[in-house]
């Protein structure tokens, strides 16, 4: 019997040959990678200074953070070479510059929307510091040594929504942008005379106002209707009136958005002013009896 040709043998065996299962291809989302990368930058931010020293990398001198006349003429392509981005973390519109001992607001990339410059040695905010950055939405300068802020420092920030100036040495509040939703000046040295009568009046989007641990003698005037949270604890507030939170000439008035008012740690006895809270959904926290 003649052997079958090799090609015929293969044809006969073909039905019995199982094809190997296909290897599933794992798909990666560039968007998820971007978010993950951003989280890594934030998690490692506090370790950046130690990493620089351990790896013997070049440390940028604080003098290189000084502004010069040419800094305002930088093009977008030059932003990546800013000294700020050599020592700090610049990531897609966010600048993380914490615990770097800088003494003034550093030059920023033009597209900066979020600035975190906490726990540094900044002493003053000038009108020029943020004049060229209309894209800013959040500024966090917690834990610096800020004593003074030019009244026009935030004038050219139409998109600014969150401003954190807690744990500084401020004695007054500057003019604020109208779109602000969160304003935090806890742990400063602000007295009532350092707050202008109408500083909050036009802030129709302000929802969170933190004024705790200051030296206020009275509740600020003309609080906006949009307020949800108001912190005034640990001040020197001695009295309130029927118009502090409500309207004495309108018994039907309700402050509908207000959810929390904290006044503990003040000399005022809230129980002596029962008509001051008729428009509120919940009573303020604080002392009601001696």
UniProtKB/TrEMBL annotation:
Functional description taken from the UniProt entry: Induces bone formation in conjunction with TGF-beta-1 or TGF-beta-2.
Extract the Pfam families matched here: LRR_1 (PF00560), LRR_6 (PF13516), LRR_8 (PF13855)
* Main location (coarse class): secreted
Q: What lineage does UniProt assign to this protein's organism?
A: Eukaryota, Metazoa, Chordata, Craniata, Vertebrata
Do the record's keywords include Transport?
no
Q: Name one GO cellular component term.
A: extracellular space
Under the heading InterPro entries, the entry gives: Leu-rich_rpt, Leu-rich_rpt_typical-subtyp, LRR_dom_sf, Mimecan/Epiphycan/Opticin
Q: What is the name attached to this protein's record?
A: Mimecan
Q: Which GO terms describe its molecular function?
A: growth factor activity
Query: Keyword annotations for this protein?
Result: Disulfide bond, Extracellular matrix, Glycoprotein, Growth factor, Leucine-rich repeat, Proteoglycan, Repeat, Secreted, Signal
Q: Does the keyword Lipoprotein apply?
A: no
Q: Which family does it belong to?
A: Belongs to the small leucine-rich proteoglycan (SLRP) family. SLRP class III subfamily.
Q: Which organism is it from?
A: Xenopus laevis (African clawed frog)
Intracellular or extracellular location(s): Secreted, Extracellular space, Extracellular matrix
Q: Which residues form the signal peptide?
A: 1-19
> GO biological process: what's one of them?
articular cartilage development
